[in-house]
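Exercise 7. Given the encoded structure of a 255-residue chain, write a plausible sequence.
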C-alpha cells in the first residue's frame, strides 16, 4: 500500500488474436481493473472493434513470439500491479476479490500463481499433468518479465506466492483451433532449436513423441480422463513430432 494509504491501481493486460467470442465476457470480468490494454496480433475478426467499444485500449502489433508480445504489453501499462489473463480464462468473483485484497497488502511477494481448472471438449480434465496446472497471472511489473518463446513464464526478482482461488481455463474452441495452436507452438519451438543449432535425429522423431504420450497418458494418469485424455495425449505427442519435423525442414530449407 502506498504512503497515502490509497489502494494501488491495477492494469489488466492481454495479448489477443481473433478472440471476438470471448472479448465481452473477459472485459466485463475485469471491471475491477483501472486500465485494460490489449496487444492484438492483427485480428481479422471483430476482436478490436468490440474491445474498443467497451473502452479497452487496443494496440495492434505484429506477432513475433509470446514473450516479446507480453513484455511489450507490460511496457504500455501505467500501473505497477498487472493482471495478465488469457481471454479463454474465466476470472470468478472470488478470484477478483482475492486479487484486490492481495494488491492492497501483497507482503513480500512480487508475483502470484493462479491454479487452473482445464476444460477440453466440454470436459473438466483432472489428470494428464493438468492436475498441477498453474500460471503467474498477478505481478508487480517492476520485478517481473516474461522469458521463453513458446511456453513463456514470468521470471521474478523476488518471491512468488500462490492464490487460493482457481480459474477455469477453456482453451478448446474446436479441434482445428486447438490443433492450430499446437502447430504454432511447435513452429516457435523448432525455430528456437534451430537458433541453438540443434539438429534432429531418429531419437527426436521416435522416442520424444512416444515418451510424451506415455508420460501424459499413463504416468500422469490421462487414461482416467477417458476419450478426452487419450486425444489430448495423442495430439500433444504429435506436436512434439511436428516440432522436430519443422526443425528438419528448416535445415532442408523446405517451406
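Solution.
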Amino acid at each position: 500500500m502506498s504512503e497515502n494509504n490509497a489502494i494501488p491501481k491495477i492494469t489488466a493486460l492481454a495479448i489477443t488474436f481473433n478472440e471476438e467470442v470471448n472479448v465481452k465476457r473477459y472485459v466485463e470480468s475485469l471491471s475491477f481493473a483501472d486500465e485494460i490494454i490489449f496487444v492484438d496480433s492483427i485480428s481479422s475478426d471483430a476482436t478490436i472493434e468490440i474491445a474498443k467499444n467497451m473502452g479497452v485500449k487496443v494496440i495492434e502489433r505484429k506477432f513475433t513470439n509470446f514473450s516479446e508480445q507480453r513484455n511489450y504489453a507490460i511496457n504500455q501499462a501505467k500501473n505497477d500491479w498487472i493482471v495478465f489473463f488469457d481471454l479463454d480464462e474465466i476470472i470468478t468473483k472470488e478470484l477478483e476479490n482475492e486479487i484486490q485484497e492481495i494488491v492492497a497488502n501483497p507482503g513480500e511477494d512480487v508475483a502470484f500463481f493462479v491454479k487452473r481448472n482445464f476444460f477440453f471438449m466440454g470436459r473438466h480434465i483432472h489428470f494428464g499433468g493438468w492436475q498441477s496446472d498453474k500460471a503467474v497471472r498477478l505481478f508487480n511489473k517492476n520485478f517481473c518479465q516474461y522469458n521463453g518463446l513458446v511456453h513463456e513464464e514470468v521470471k521474478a526478482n523476488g518471491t512468488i506466492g500462490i492464490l487460493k482461488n482457481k480459474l477455469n481455463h477453456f482453451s478448446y474452441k474446436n479441434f482445428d483451433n486447438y490443433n492450430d495452436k499446437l502447430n504454432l507452438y511447435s513452429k516457435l519451438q523448432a525455430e528456437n532449436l534451430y537458433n541453438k543449432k540443434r539438429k534432429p535425429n531418429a531419437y527426436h522423431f521416435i522416442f520424444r513423441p512416444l515418451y510424451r504420450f506415455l508420460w501424459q497418458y499413463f504416468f500422469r494418469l490421462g487414461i482416467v480422463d477417458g476419450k478426452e485424455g487419450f486425444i489430448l495425449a495423442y495430439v500433444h505427442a504429435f506436436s512434439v513430432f511436428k516440432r522436430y519435423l519443422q526443425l528438419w525442414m528448416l535445415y532442408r530449407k523446405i517451406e
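Remark. The two ends are 53 Å apart (CA to CA). Students should compare their own answers with the one above.
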